[in-house]
């Protein structure tokens, strides 16, 4: 089992920045990729960004490319999502997740955090 705990969400004005953190514990050696997803009210959960844990390769959704950066701190088993130039459309509950394979499909992620709310005011 892998336990994931997100933090760092909050209320920010459009154009502002936030940094989300995801602390992992448990059988962390079993994960291949970690990712961030988000879900707004009435919408499906969508992929935001992912990073391979060992190599640090990254991939982003087009909607956040150039504004968000995903990083990881392997020594502290923590993943981050640095969000800049935030827009009201970025408002959602953000979840971190861990997968045993390299993927961006939510269905392939085995472990999920509880989520953290991000609200961007206009």
Explain briefly what this protein structure is:
The protein has 122 residues and is mostly beta strands.
What layout of secondary structure does this protein have?
Elements: E1 2-7, E2 10-13, E3 18-26, E4 33-39, E5 46-52, E6 58-60, E7 68-73, E8 78-83, E9 92-99, E10 109-112, E11 116-121
Parallel strand pairs: 2-11
Antiparallel strand pairs: 1-3, 3-8, 4-5, 4-9, 5-6, 7-8, 9-10, 9-11
Count of strand segments: 11
Q: How does the major sheet shape up?
A: 7 strands, mixed
- State the helicity in percent bands: under 10%
**What is the N-to-C succession of helices and strands?**
EEEEEEEEEEE
Q: How many helices?
A: 0
* Straight-line distance between termini: 40 Å
Please state the structural category. Answer: mainly beta
Strand content: over 45%
Mean pLDDT across residues: 94
Extract low-pLDDT stretches: none
Shape: globular
Please give the radius of gyration in angstroms: 13 Å
């Amino acid at each position: 089992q892998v336990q994931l705990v997100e933090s760092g969400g909050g209320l920010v004005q459009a154009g502002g920045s936030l940094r989300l953190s995801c602390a992992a514990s448990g059988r962390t050696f079993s994960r291949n990729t970690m990712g961030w997803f988000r879900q707004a009210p009435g919408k499906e959960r969508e992929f935001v960004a992912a990073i391979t844990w060992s190599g640090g390769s990254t991939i982003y959704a087009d909607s956040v490319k150039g504004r968000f950066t995903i990083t990881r701190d392997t020594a502290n088993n923590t993943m981050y999502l640095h969000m800049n130039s935030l827009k009201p459309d970025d408002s959602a509950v953000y979840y971190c997740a861990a997968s045993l394979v390299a993927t961006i499909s939510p269905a392939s992620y085995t472990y999920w955090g509880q989520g953290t709310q991000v609200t961007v005011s206009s």
